[in-house]
Amino acid sequence: MSFAGVALALFTAAAVVAVPPPAAHAFAEDVCYPEEGAPAQNCGPLPPVCPLDDPDAPLCGLQAFALYGYTLQRPLGGRSLVHTDSTYIIARTVGFSERDAYWIAAYDEATDLGSFAPRDADGRLVPDAAALTTRDIDGLVRTHFATGGFLFHFLPTMRGPSDPQPDGLRPDAEDPAHEVMLTHLRRWAMAGPSSAVPLCTGGFTAPSAAGDYATGATCYGDGQPAQIHGEYAVEAPLAIPFDNETGQQVISGDVRSGQFDSWIGENSWNARTGIYLHALGDRISHRACTDAATITPPSPERPEFRIDLNVPTCDQGPHAIRHEYETGVDFAGVEPGDRTTEATLSMVYDELVDFARARGTLDERATLPATKAELVTNGLVPALQVRGPVERLTAVTEVGCRAGAGQFPGTPTCGF
Contact, 189 vs 272, CB < 8 A? Predict the structure, then answer.
């Protein structure tokens, strides 16, 4: 059977038994915990026979997709060393306190999982795990189509099908006319607690004075919601349809974004920052898909937002393979357009400098190109290429120790 035939069979079977659609995983957990007391494992390692420069290899795509499906079933889950440890180390380096850096990183990971509590390399919860567990933000989870959570992970641009594609390796997070969700989230995160800046499903606000749909004062519709209709490729043209309504974003259960700060509590600004950084990382991670995808705004003839993610570069096989290029492989063998880990760490660093400056905590040494190069290019990037999961975790921790950032909870103590 061809890969298309296998994908169709998998999708049909899923529909019959009413299981969730294929997972939208960007910078997916790379360190997984099989059971308490057992060493961590690679969640979805690239099969050794699969090339680093061919994400369209059909059998590798099917194998990669199956591996990640297995990962989702592991009861203790795992974590992404990009979303958690690397974010923590960068935040510490640019001037955030240990506490703030931890909660930024924890909510970065919770955006994928709903909630996050740290475990050590043997899968055991850290001793003070209860105090280090995030509040539930299940409405933002990558597989939750009905809440609009999916759109925190797949962020297409608003443009016509014949307009030039953006550069998703360095997306413009201050371009509300095109990077709607990304600029919407950045503005909300930067505004901080108790601001009037809304957080809206899909990032869609009422039109601003400049005419964009990302930076208006209220969510689109304001009591009379409009439909958001999208399609997400299984293997184009086979797609999953999804539908939402404009309005306040679902955070958890009946909690909406207008209640975000009271729901999260004292760590709400850190949580906002972590959620934005997660979406930024996923925008870059999924750039092969979302650069080609489009958003069409409402019109008198069709009063709904339309999101077209039904394009070949969103197909689940290449999608899965590209995530397995992100850790535990030699990045030099990956095509430049797929080197998303390096691109993400660079932009996360720059954004955390801006956020630290806005919050009055910036360490001015972090603005030096040499400081960034030493931490990112010469530190985190080589460490994340280590194939063994425990060895990779140790290598990333060592980078933080050398930078004076300390260790993320559950990792070895500096000086080990």
Answer: yes
Do 365 and 371 meet the contact criterion of CB atoms below 8 Å apart? yes
What is the rounded distance in angstroms from the CA atom of residue 122 to the CA atom of residue 410?
9
Alpha helices in 165-217 (DSSP H): 180-191
Q: How far apart are CA 231 and CA 243, in angstroms?
A: 9
Q: What are the C-alpha distances in Å from 253 to residues 137, 147, 220, 263, 267? A: 9, 10, 21, 11, 20
Tell me, what amino acid is at 121?
A
Predicted TM-score (pTM) of the model is 0.93
**Alpha carbon 346 to chain centroid, angstroms:** 15
Which pLDDT band holds residue 72 (cuts at 50, 70, 90)?
low
- Rounded Cα–Cα distance for residues 109 and 83 (Å): 6
Decide if pLDDT at 253 tops 60: yes
- Two tokens at 114? 């709903």
Of the pLDDT bands very low, low, confident and very high (cuts 50, 70, 90), residue 25 is low
Structure tokens at 218: 């209220």
Cα–Cα distance between 310 and 198 in angstroms, integer?
29
**Position of tokens 């992404």?**
80
CA distance 296 to 312: 19
Q: Where are the domains of the chain?
A: 3-229+243-300+316-402
User: pLDDT tens digit string along 198-214?
Assistant: 999 999 999 999 999 99
Q: Is residue 11 pLDDT above 80, yes or no?
A: no
Burial (CB < 10 A; 0-12, 13-18, 19+), residue 5, is exposed
Half-sphere exposure of 249 (CA within 13 A, CB side): 29
**Cβ(304)–Cβ(244) below 8 Å:** no
Q: Is 88 exposed, middle or buried (0-12, 13-18, 19+ CB in 10 A)?
A: buried
| Cross-strand bridge partners of residue 205 | 219
Query: Amino acid letter at 383?
Result: A
CA distances, 231 to each of 15, 221, 236, 295, 307 (Å): 15, 22, 10, 11, 7
Distance CA 416, CA 414 (A): 6
Cα(370)–Cα(284) distance, rounded to whole angstroms? 24
- Which whole-number Å values give the CA distances from 310 to 215, 232, 299, 318, in the listed order? 27, 5, 21, 13
Structure tokens at 239: 């797609």
